[in-house]
Each structure stands twice: as C-alpha cells, then as structure tokens.
Write a structure and sequence with these properties.
Two copies of one chain form a homodimer. Chain A has 331 residues and is of the alpha/beta class. Helix content of chain A is 45%, strand content 16%. In chain A, strands 2-1-3-4-5-11 form a six-stranded parallel sheet, with helices on both faces. The first copy, chain A, has a six-stranded mixed sheet with strand order 7-6-8-9-10-12, sandwiched between helices. Chain A binds a DNA duplex (16 and 16 nucleotides) through helix 2 and helix 4.
Chain lengths: 331, 331
DNA sequence: TTGAAAGCGCTAACAG
DNA sequence: CTGTTAGCGCTTTCAA
C-alpha cells in the first residue's frame, strides 16, 4: 500500500490538489484531466489513506460498540441491527467485548478515544460513574442500548423492563397460573435485574398471588445458571405451575432441568422467556416469550448515534408476547 | 478532544518532542520534567491521536473480520476467540457482516484497505477470485477461517470437513444405523458443503450403505432450512433411522420438524449435528454433535495473523464427537 | 481549470 | 536532558 496521492499526481502529470479534487468529487478540473487521473489511480492501484484524511477532516467514520458478551443471541442480533445501519451510513464498527470487566472496559474506552471514534454504543451493562465520567469527557455521541442511566446525560434505547416483566407474568396469570416462580437475572443489575423482578412482583401482588423471596431464584442470564436456578426453585417444594425467566437462555436452562428430571413441558410446568431470540424459536417446546425488538433496537440506537448527540431522549420500544408452546392454559 | 500534544507541551513548558518521549516511554528526560508533563497530561485530559500516530508509524493496530452472518452461534463463538487474542495483543477489530453478498463484501474490503487495517480474517465463506485478487493486492496478512482455498496464497485454520463428516456418519453407523439421511449445507459451498457431503457418502459406501441423492436434502446451514430439509427427507419415505446434519442449527430444525410431527427423539430418529455450539447443548434432546474447537479456531487465526504473513500453512484443528442424547444405540 | 503551500497531530532524526 | 525540524498522506485555502 505504498502508493500515495503524490504518486498518482506524478504519474498523471498533475498536482496532488487536482487528484484530491477528483477523488473527492469536488469541482475544478477538465474532463480530460479527470480521465487521465482516474486511469492513473486504477493503474497504480491507489487507495486513499483514511488516516491521513481523518487527520485533516477530523473524521474517522468509525464507531465503537461495547458489549458484555459477544457470544449470545441477544448481542448478536443487536449487532446485526447496528452493523446494518452503520454500513449504510458509511461507518465501520469496532467491537469491544468487555466480559463485564471494569478494567477491560476502561482499556477499551481508552483505545476508542485515542482512535477518535465518532460515537459509542454502550450495551446491556450498567453504566458506572467511572464509565460515565470518561464517556462524557470524550465529547462524542453515546447511546445506551438495552440499559439506561437517568443520572447520566446519555440517551438510551430499550424496552420498559418493568412493564415487560409485568406483562410476561400477567400472561401466566391470565392463563390460570397462580403458583409462579421467577428466574431472575442478577439482582444488582439495575436494568435487566431489578425492574424485571419488580414487574414480576407487582403483577403477582396485583393478582393477590404469593411472590416472596422463596419464589425467586437468581441466575446470570445464561443457560447454565438457568438450570441451576430451576433446580433451586424446584428444591423449595413450592408446587409451581409456571416460571417466568428473565432471559430466553435461562428459560431454556429451566427446560433442560425439567427434561432431565423427566417432567413434561408444558404439562408439568409452564415457562415464559424474555427476549425472543432465535433460541426461543428453536427450543422444545417452542418458547413463549416476551418479545423485544432486538435488531430494531440496534438500528434505532445507531440512527440516534448518527443524528447527533443533541437529543437525550430515553426511547422506549414496544414489547409484546410471542405465543408459542411452552405455556399451558389452565383456564 | 481538542487537546493536542502541543497544548500539553505549552502547558508543561517543554517541547512537543519531550512530551512525545514521555508518552511513548522513550528515554531522554529528567524525572522532574516527566512529572510535570504527566501532570499536564492529566490536567488537560490529553489523549494521543491514534490517526496522527498511525500516519507516521504506519500502524493502525486494527484488523478486519469479514463474516457472512454475525447472528449465529458459530460466528459469535469464533468472534469471541478472535477478540480475546486481538485485545491481548493490542488490536482493535472491525467487524464486517457480508451477508454473503459480493458487492457488500467488496465494499467492506475497500473500506478496510483505506483504513489500513493490518490484517484480515476471512470467515466461513468461499474465497472467490475477485476477493483473492483484491486481498493479495493489499499486501497484508490474511487468514482464512473455517474455509480455505488452495489456489490462494493465504493460510487457513479449519477442521478437516471431509474427515469430520465421515466420522459423524461413522458414529451413526457404529451405533447400528443403516438408513441414514444427510441434511447438507449448500451444495456449491466447496468447504462446508461438498466435503461434508463427500465425507458422508464415503462413510456410507465404506459400510455398503445406501447414499444416493435421495438420501440427501439441502439447506443453508440455518434453522428454518433444517426444518424444510427434514420435511423433504421425510416425504421421500426412506424409513430413515438417523440423520446427519451439516450444522447444529439445521439439526435443531430437523428436531423441530420431528417434534411437530409428534415423533419421538431419539426413538423415532437419531440426529447428529455439526459444530457443537451452545445450541447443541441447549437442544432437547441434547444434541450429539461433531465438535469443532470454534473459539480456539478464532484464537489460532488471530495468532497467525499477528505472527506475520510468512507461513502459508493450512492448519487443521482436531475435531471429535461430543456425545449427548440425540442418537439412539441400535446395537 | 490548476498548482503551491499551509497545516492536521504526531514521531524521529539531528543538533545542542 | 531537551528542542528544532522534517515529514507521514491528505484537504483546503489562496493565487494564478
């Protein structure tokens, strides 16, 4: 990649300014020079150096995405939406797998800032003060996806987790279930954790149903933890007829536990998931779950990132229940 | 991000050269100046501009990853491995979701070349001549992952697809199955398609079993196509006792078809998958599948990318069968 | 329609 | 130990 703009200029017998104009589709040259220069470009295989360009126009056409775990349907589907819009608008996306690790995250943030990314998408993770302070200092658009932090100045795109959990629980109740357990995400998580727990509890209370701590088991949103949480719930002898899970993966974990115990689904236990990733569709029985418009969430977030940092709106996307075969109707 | 090296220099009352030395940990300054400068850096919130740096040292510390579909466990798990090593070695990774689209791919390739990425990982897709020519012109390390092209000069990391398919089929045969179908990927795919078909056929022939075209249905490696392919196979009245799928997702599709038809697994049909992603573990019954060391593949590829373009070795990683519950032993 | 020249922010000799 | 200076490859006035 040694060929530079001056190589082209020399080869075509013009100045670098002219080559630049032609490359950038600016006016100011005769058709003949244009042809001549374009021929040289092809012949030499000239590729403008984005760094040099970026240095002068202060543009990198690159954004950064921080996510807790690249492996996982939720992240993947989100990434798909992000990538789609990013490419359409001419941006490249740098992915940063934080592994939920603070140091790692800060290290990425540092890199992204040095690389002068033009925006950052912060996904599915709680925005700590440390992150917030750093991000603010960057003076670039940031949008929180599937998370939010009212104390920060950043806009966000997510569903209403409380309402969503309420509605998932309500769905179970409406189908005649009264003894319902919750497989929650991490309790400390202020976004995908607590609000979903509260939504569950509220729905249960509104229906005068039991929902003390005994009905709740905690996981980390992933499969294995779903198995463990279901085992835990099962060991408490609550005679549950249904379980609400805070993620599809944990719901599948619960199913796996039941299968292993030789129980029938949904006859012996109804399960509702959360997310509606491909996992839900592939499960057996196919998982009834709370649908989040994941890919759309990624698209909207990317749109916001591009449309400038101005609007600090908290966008709430619609959710709904996708009915499949994992909930038995007791009515 | 307006603060530059000269702001720091001015603030600290030294020259930019000194600041540069300190920032880059080069020798040549007294402890006092160092402290002074570092204080200024913190106070002003100076972040070295990676573009400016890159322009002079011709380094971007960035690599590009081209993959057909970010959504999908295989890609995700690979990405995890790639990202892990990349971060450890100080590289950022730009993801490019080609969607198996030629134009889109070329457009990404162009962008990556202008951004002067230092290496490219080309994943799971057939390397066409067009791509190969372009990639060669870039003069940077390229490694093919889960694909390969002997006609190209690029090294690759993958499993032996023929041998793997042979061994998956053989596993079924060893468990007493004689009427076995294949849910193949796209026939034209010279890597994940044909070799797996050939491996299947060879295993069947070696055992004197029927394996004509009627035993094979084609999908596109994804879930829905697995359902369709299984339906197709089923409609041919072959009395199959087992099916070999060229991806876990298609295997799950086949399972879903069977469940929908009210058949029992693995009693009515044994199924073996390919990949051993988390999907296989979460399936019901848990899927016995041909294990590819996916994350490791990503790590190795990234290692090769960094260790220079010198070795054009075709690395073949070990595969094995992960036994779970989807294959019935007929012996 | 064209070119010369001044930077963009930084590194790397080369002098002191 | 420290500063000056010449680029890295490109865009963008400003003149011609």
């Amino acid at each position: 990649m040694a060929v530079t703009i001056s190589d082209v200029a020399r080869h075509a017998g013009v100045s670098i300014a002219t080559v630049s104009r032609i490359v950038n589709n600016l006016p100011g040259y005769s058709p003949e020079t244009k042809d001549k220069v374009e021929a040289s470009i092809v012949e030499l295989g000239y590729k403008p150096n984005a760094m040099a360009r970026g240095l002068v126009n202060r543009k990198t056409n690159t954004i950064g995405v921080l996510l807790p775990c690249v492996t996982g349907r939720f992240s993947s589907e989100l990434l798909r939406g992000i990538e789609k819009i990013a490419h359409a608008k001419g941006y490249s996306v740098i992915i940063c797998n934080t592994d939920m690790n603070g140091e790692r995250t800060m290290s990425y943030l540092k890199t992204l800032s040095e690389k002068r990314v033009e925006g950052i998408l912060f996904i599915s993770e709680w925005l700590t003060d440390e992150y917030a302070v750093f991000l603010e200092s960057l003076q670039i658009p940031v949008v929180l996806v599937a998370t939010s932090n009212p104390a920060s100045p950043f806009p966000s795109v997510k569903v209403d987790d409380f309402a969503a959990a309420y509605s998932a629980t309500r769905y179970l109740i409406d189908h005649g279930h009264t003894r319902i357990g919750l497989i929650s995400g991490t309790e400390k998580d202020p976004i995908a954790g607590r609000p979903r727990i509260e939504g569950f509890k509220r729905a249960m209370k509104d229906a005068d149903l039991r929902c003390d701590q005994a009905c709740i088991a905690f996981g980390d949103f992933h499969f294995e933890s779903g198995i463990a949480a279901m085992a835990e719930l099962d060991s408490r002898g609550l005679e549950l007829s249904a379980v609400c899970a805070a993620s599809d993966e944990m719901a599948l974990g619960a199913m796996t536990y039941m299968h292993r115990m030789g129980r029938k689904l949904p006859e012996d236990l109804s399960i509702i998931g959360f997310d509606d990733t491909l996992d839900a569709l592939m499960a057996y029985p196919a998982l009834t779950t709370l649908h989040q418009p994941i890919e759309l969430m990624g698209e909207r977030a990317m749109d916001m990132l591009c449309s400038g940092t101005a609007d600090d709106r908290q966008i709430i996307l619609e959710h709904h229940i996708t009915e499949r075969d994992s909930v038995k109707d007791l009515r």
